[in-house]
Amino acid sequence: MAEIARPQTASTELVRRAITGRRIDIGSRLFEGLLLAALLAALLVLVVLVADVVSRGWVVYAERGMDFVTSGNSRNAADAGIGQALFGSLALMVLVALIAFPLGIGASIYLEEYARQTTFTRFITVNIRNLAGVPAIVYGLLGLAIFVIALQDLTGPDSNGRSIISGGLTLSVVVLPIVIITSSEALRAVPQSIREAALAVGATRWETVRSHVLPYAAPGILTGTILGMARAFGEAAPLIMVGGAASFVATGNANAWEQLFGSYMAMPTLIFNWAGLPNADFRALTAAGIMALLATILLVNGIAIVLRNRYSRRW
Amino acid sequence: MTESTRLTPEDLRGSAGRRRKEAIVRGLFFGAASVSVIISGLLILSLAGEAWNFLSQVDPDALRSDGWFPRRDMFDLATVVGGTLVIAGIGLAVAVPLGLGAAVYLAEYASPRLRGILKPLLEMLASVPSVVLGFFALVVISPTISQPACDVLFGSSPIFSMTAAGLAVGILITPLIASIAEDAMYAVPNSLREASYGLGAKKRTTSIRIVFPAAVSGIMAAIIVGASRAIGETMIVAMAAGGTGGSLFQLNPCQPGQTMTAAITALATGSDRVRGADLAYPSLFFVGIMLFVFTLVLNIISERFVRRVRLRY
Fold it and tell me: What is the pLDDT of residues B1-27, one digit of tens each?
């Protein structure tokens, strides 16, 4: 730094040296280094994980290509693929989008836009926060007792209730609290003045919400729902409870509608099954399946993060 | 001005059709909000009903036997609770230092640009499904970390161990703890930091003595939420802890063990139908309700801590 000419006495010089003197504070540097190391260690795990999975699974894609993506499961490692699991997971996602999203967004609109601060609304809000903290496996038990056993006649009489419908309902219950909480946050971020402006010119509550609040909250709601979807896509524990871990699924010539009520497998449960097999050939298949699962989830999450950063606005 | 142009409150209410539509929409949204209450009701009913079946039929001695083997009518609760605590403890021992270190760095040291890069990366780690981390625990953590370490410490090195599962659980909850703790520290007003610098404190001193204590409620909440997630984590434990067929009572982290969550899945994957031996099916729900109560209590405590932060700033 350029020295500024300034009349200096001995004492100001001493003070200057005391403040800016060239002391290297080893303790502070070490502390900052440790903090950074903690952060990098966590990120290193992500790098090692991806590298390990790719190095194990790459060979499967190199040798079999699309055949691995389209074939169903098989006892024979050379023939087994993720086709049926992909179909199962996609069907589950469609169900979650149809069940959890309207319910979740509707609930958040009620709580943020309509409800007065009554004991009942406070109870609902606290209840939702608690539901969000319930382990997914416990929802698996709920799905087992209600959707698989109690409602068997509706969810799949031929598959003992262990159908895609049961799985989709169970996953919807798992992500519903997440969707409600993130949508509520997005709605809360819309300034009150926008609602007041609409109400002042005679719009009803619903007209205000539909034409003024929702458009501004849409990016936030969308991000929340996408993240909920990604979570559901990778969730294995509740599906295992409601029969989503079938090792072999014979679809015969059932059409897509009939398959909804039949037994199924999903990406995470197929990976769980393969990882538990002693046969070493399935290790590479497991890694290849994980590559597909991770690629989808990281891509979807990346889109959500970009969306959030692009459309997040400060009022 | 004539009498006919005067507005009355009636004129401002809008048409009947519009009001009817408004009522219908409101009713639909109310219905959607009520679903969460219905779900809670069903959850508690389905868990409590079968759990009561289990408790009323089980032989009390079976709850204090040598291990957890539901198909052989051995329901030792200490086995599943002990295993859960060992694995959650290992997980927290990994995740608390890493997560809090990362949080302090992001909130206090990282430049906004660096923060903009590192935070999404941490969120990526948070989005890795637990079934993937279970595989990772089995093929990477176990052979490279837990087996050698256990070999040195205890002279035994099983592939499936509570250490391997616990370390992976730690990786799973690190981003969660980091994210909640970082939010808490980020919310500490800058005036506190400036006051500290004004007194001549170093950045390190400010972080440790000013920001950390000011955010301590949020940090506690982060750790408790992390503990709750660790207790409820299923797939990693089911894949790497080695309790598939049941487990003897075991607190040695280098041995295979059973947790509450894995005990539930083990029974579900063991046969085609979950309805197995007489008491096996209701025992799932008893374990489920224990798990539910454990995590609920932890979540309520953490909510208390979070609310304290919100009240203060």
Answer: 455 677 777 776 778 888 888 899 999
Whole-angstrom distance, CA of residue B212 vs CA of residue A46: 27
| One domain, residues B45 and B101 | no
With CB atoms and an 8 Å threshold, state whether B128 touches A109: no
Residues A197-223 have pLDDT tens digits of 999 998 889 999 999 999 999 988 998
Q: Does one domain contain both B111 and B73? A: yes
Within an 8 Å CB–CB cutoff, is residue A142 touching chain B? Answer: yes
Chain A residue closest in CA terms to B18: A204
The mean pLDDT value for B63-69 works out to 79
**Of B38, B57, B76, which one is at a domain's C-terminal end?**
B57
* Cβ neighbours of A234 in B, within 8 Å: 127-132
- For the entire predicted model, the pTM comes to 0.88
Report how many domains make up chain B.
2
Tell me how far apart the alpha carbons of residues A304 and A227 are, in angstroms, rounded to a whole number: 7
Q: Which residues pair with B66 in a beta bridge?
A: none
Delimit the domains of chain A by residue range: 66-311
| Cα B176 to Cα B190: distance, rounded to the nearest angstrom | 24
Q: Which of B32, B57, B82 is the last residue of a domain?
A: B57
Complex ipTM, two decimals? 0.88
Residue B272 domain boundaries: 62-312
Q: Does domain A66-311 have CATH number 3.40.50.970?
A: no
What is the rounded distance in angstroms from the CA atom of residue B81 to the CA atom of residue B291? 9
- Whether chain A has a CB inside 8 Å of the CB on B107: the answer is no
